[in-house]
Each structure stands twice: as C-alpha cells, then as structure tokens.
C-alpha cells in the first residue's frame, strides 16, 4: 500500500480534520482516506464540460415556457 505525505496543511484545516476524525471515531489518517475516497467517487467534469452544462441551463427562458416577464409581473402587482 502506498504512503502519502501532505505538507503545509494549514492549522485550521488540520484542526478541522482532527475534530472530524474524533467525532467519527477514526484516526486522522483513516478520516483523510474516507474523505479522499468519497471525493474521488464523485463524477469529475472538465472545465469545458461544466461550462457547456451552464450554457445549456442558461438557454431556458421563462418567456419561451409561456411565463410572463418580471416586468409584466411588477406592473401587474403595482396596478393592484
């Protein structure tokens, strides 16, 4: 099994890891391994894929869905 050394861990981060390990009843090393494993199991998207996903989401238009614009809603509300 490989060994990983991490240098220059900020004190605050180290204390957070230590507290989390204690809460979970694990050693610091075991807690770091759990966190790394969980993080690496999540899907990884490239920057290009993330940007494309955001662009697809921005294509939604309330007007295209038949909803009134915010300006129309404000005017209607002020007319009450």
Descriptive notes:
- The N and C termini lie far apart (71 Å).
- The model has no long low-confidence stretch (mean pLDDT 90).
- The longest helix has 14 residues, at 11-24.
- The protein has helices at 11-24, 28-41, 47-58, 70-78.
- With 80 residues, the protein is an all-alpha fold.
- The protein contains four helices and no strands.
- The protein has a domain at 11-59.
- The protein is elongated.
- Helix content is 61%, strand content 0%.
Tell me the distance between the termini: 71 Å
Poorly predicted runs are none
Helical content band: 55-70%
Averaged pLDDT, please? 90
Strand content: under 5%
* E-strand count: 0
Helix/strand class: mainly alpha
Largest sheet: none
- Shape from CA axes? elongated
What is the alpha-carbon Rg in Å? Answer: 24 Å
How is this fold's topology laid out?
Blueprint: H1 11-24, H2 28-41, H3 47-58, H4 70-78
Features:
about 80 residues; mainly alpha; about 60% helix; single chain
Question: In a few lines, what is going on in this structure?
Answer:
The protein has 80 residues and is mainly alpha-helical.
């Amino acid at each position: 099994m490989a060994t990983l050394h991490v240098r220059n861990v900020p004190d605050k981060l180290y204390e957070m890891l230590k507290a989390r390990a204690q809460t979970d009843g694990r050693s610091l090393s075991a807690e770091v391994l759990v966190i790394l494993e969980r993080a690496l199991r999540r899907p990884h998207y490239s920057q290009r894929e993330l940007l494309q996903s955001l662009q697809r989401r921005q294509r939604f238009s309330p007007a295209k869905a038949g909803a009134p614009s915010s300006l129309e809603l404000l005017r209607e509300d002020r007319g009450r």
